[in-house]
Amino acid sequence: xxxxxxxxxxxxxxxxxxxxxxxxxxxxxxxxxxxxxxxxxxxxxxxxxxxxxxxxxxxxxxxxxxxxxxxxxxxxxxxxxxxxxxxxxxxxxxxxxxxxxxxxxxxxxxxxxxxxxxxxxxxxxxxxxxxxxxxxxxxxxxxxxxxxxxxxxxxxxxxxxxxxxxxxxxxxxxxxxxxxxxxxxxxxxxxxxxxxxxxxxxxxxxxxxxxxxxxxxxxxxxxxxxxxxxxxxxxxxxxxxxxxxxxxxxxxxxxxxxxxxxxxxxxxxxxxxxxxxxxxxxxxxxxxxxxxxxxxxxxxxxxxxxxxxxxxxxxxxxxxxxxxxxxxxxxxxxxxxxxxxx
Length: 342
Ligand code: DAH
Known about the structure:
2 domains; binds 3,4-dihydroxyphenylalanine; BirA Bifunctional Protein, domain 2; 3-stranded antiparallel sheet; 7-stranded mixed sheet; alpha+beta
């Protein structure tokens, strides 16, 4: 075959391929590629025949057929992309959105049982016109101990296993220091509850190094122990049941005088004795007392004019009693099987 003939053949081949490509549908394109560019394709078979032709024209034909090959490849790819895009557009325009389908629902969280009980406790007191106040969890020795009448080196400080941050700076061991912070800022009458976290170096099934307390206090002229009894008895009935009664027995706290340990009659056995009340018929739930005049002196309240009561309770303990939970650790594990029950 002469050079001219070969050239003509190649050019005719390209023309034909392009004409077929023009007509091709998406499914036909791969076939076209194989037909013209594949290993057994038409262009390849022309190139195979090159060995039979004159060595002088071989490079020219080689160059030409490579050019054709590249052009065809490009055009085939282009057409393929074009058709693919068209069919995707068509598919998209066929999709209809059913706006009446229900949406994907989000899992709802719920309030932690400790938060619930803490809010329930505070709500009982806010109904009695107590205000809710919070204080810092990092406290100084002054507010946590000294101003609450714990003298330096006094053994009463050992009642509370303190986490110290620095000398004289610590994680508060109770919510009572907020009494002092409020008294410094506000003159009587004050009626306040303080919910919050407290920290002690202690851990077993009923103790955790972090737990929650609600502190309460009321200061005005002529506040007596009878007021304390009335408020706390009402609290016990509201929280645990109308039929329950309160018991006050002498206790000691440096910041109250006299001090009391407050118990309620056992809600489970109604006083007969059971496992929950350890057969005593009574369950201790908080400390309380009349605020010691020594505390008033630190904040320049006149103890001749004002008197007040204070009380403090552990929220975990109240929640464990209320829901019959016997391991405090369950509150902090964040196991949804536990949390979802409240
Ligand atoms: N702060 C005490 C404690 O953590 C509890 C307490 C006892 C608070 C007697 C009071 C109180 O306000 O009057 O153990």
